[in-house]
Structure formats: structure tokens, C-alpha cells
Specification:
Helices cover 26% and strands 27% of the residues. The protein is of the alpha+beta class. It has a domain at 70-219: Jelly Rolls, CATH 2.60.120. It has a seven-stranded antiparallel sheet with strand order 1-2-3-7-6-5-4, with helices on both faces. It is globular and about 50 Å long. It starts with 10 loop residues before the first helix and ends with a helix.
Length: 221
């Protein structure tokens, strides 16, 4: 797939620190410690215990814990229309961490018309991390534009390339939904005419697949 494209054994080491911290609290802040002159005692709950601390307001939001199955994120009828002749089951691309990244690919040659579709999910540690990645990937991309109503933010761009007189037109849609990114790549060529499909066809197809993929992410499919 094209990249438009994401430690815990400290308990024993921290135990002495916890013990010392507790001892320090007992000497300086415990019930037996002398109160500073003029300072009222801290409020206590029934039974002499202090109220539990309020939850931290700095915790980062993380809506999605893992990537959904990418090969079922797009409806079979959508695959049939965008990639004629392809097996609708698709082929999942191996990933080093399927909790964070999963990609499915469909491609087929129907007569002289070739189409390729990739759908990828990337799950990050927080909304902020996904937002930063989204902004970095889209800030230098020219010729595209925002896609209203798709995820929390979405961008679409279509480019034409020519190699040995053969044209290929490729559309990429990058959408962010909370702490996850959805990346759709869709391209096509005609090997008889050497021409590529028009921009509207490729852009519309990529956006359609992206909308279904975002819906699958939100539905937990």
C-alpha cells in the first residue's frame, strides 16, 4: 500500500519509591504531623479518611483501541462497482501490528481496464496524535480539497501520472475519526487507449469507499 499512511516492568523498581513516599507523607502530612499555624485542617470523610483525588483532566481521549477488519469495511457491491472483476473478499496485507494498522487491497483487470483499491486503518494513541498526523500529511498536498461530512476531517486529492505513454489516475482520501485515520487509495488505467479514467470517476469512487470505511470504524465492524 502507498504511504499516505501507527513498556511495563517498572513496578519492582518503583516499590522502594512508593514506600519512601508513604513514609514521607506520614511524617509531614499524616494525622500525627503538627499543623501549620493558621492553616485549617484538610477536610476528611467519615471514618477519618481523606477524599479521593479528582480524576486527572489531562488524560488524552482514545476512542478506538484497535483497527477493524479492513476487508469487510467496504460493501461487496461497492467493490464490484469500483473494481470490476475483483474478488470481493479482498486480500489483507500483512501488518507488524494489527491492533494499530490494517489494510485490505482489491485489484483486477477487466478487459483492458485496470482498477486498484486499498483501504487502510491506522489507530493512534490519542486524538491529538491522529490530528497531528493528519495535518502533517495534508499540509503539503496541493490540488486537492476538504471532504465535508466525512469523519472529523477529510482531504481528497487526485493525480495523473504517465509512464511509457500509459496514463494512470490515482485518488487518495485521508479521513480522521477521533484517534484513527482512514486512508483510501483508488486508481485506474485503460491499457487499450493508454488513457486514464477521468478525475471525477476516481475521486467519487475513493470518497465512496472512504465513507463506508469510516462508518465501519464507528460501528466497530
Amino acid at each position: 500500500m502507498r504511504d499516505f499512511p501507527l513498556p511495563l516492568a517498572l513496578t519492582a523498581r518503583l516499590s522502594p519509591v512508593v514506600v519512601l513516599a508513604c513514609a514521607g507523607w506520614a511524617l509531614t502530612s499524616g494525622p500525627a504531623a503538627p499543623r501549620a499555624e493558621g492553616r485549617p485542617p484538610a477536610p476528611q470523610q467519615a471514618g477519618g479518611t481523606r477524599p479521593a483525588p479528582a480524576p486527572s483532566s489531562t488524560a488524552e481521549s482514545r476512542t478506538y483501541a484497535s483497527a477493524p477488519a479492513p476487508c469487510t469495511a467496504v460493501a461487496a457491491k461497492t467493490v464490484e462497482s469500483l473494481v470490476p472483476g475483483a474478488k470481493t473478499a479482498g486480500k489483507e496485507i500483512p501488518s507488524t501490528d494489527t491492533q494499530k494498522r490494517r489494510t485490505c487491497s482489491w485489484n483486477a483487470l477487466d478487459g483492458f481496464d485496470y482498477r486498484w483499491l486499498d483501504v487502510s486503518f491506522e489507530v493512534m494513541g490519542s486524538d491529538a496524535a491522529a490530528r497531528t498526523s493528519y495535518e502533517e500529511r495534508t499540509k503539503d498536498k496541493s490540488g486537492g480539497g476538504a471532504v465535508p461530512g466525512l469523519g472529523d476531517a477529510a482531504y481528497s486529492v487526485v493525480n495523473l501520472t504517465t509512464e511509457d505513454k500509459q496514463q494512470t489516475r490515482e485518488g487518495v482520501v485521508l479521513a480522521r475519526a477521533a484517534n484513527a485515520l482512514v486512508v483510501v487509495t483508488y486508481n485506474g488505467s485503460d491499457f487499450e487507449t493508454k488513457k486514464a479514467p477521468d478525475t471525477a470517476e476516481i475521486n467519487t469512487g475513493a470518497i465512496k469507499a472512504a465513507k463506508e470505511a469510516v462508518a465501519a470504524l464507528r460501528d466497530g465492524r
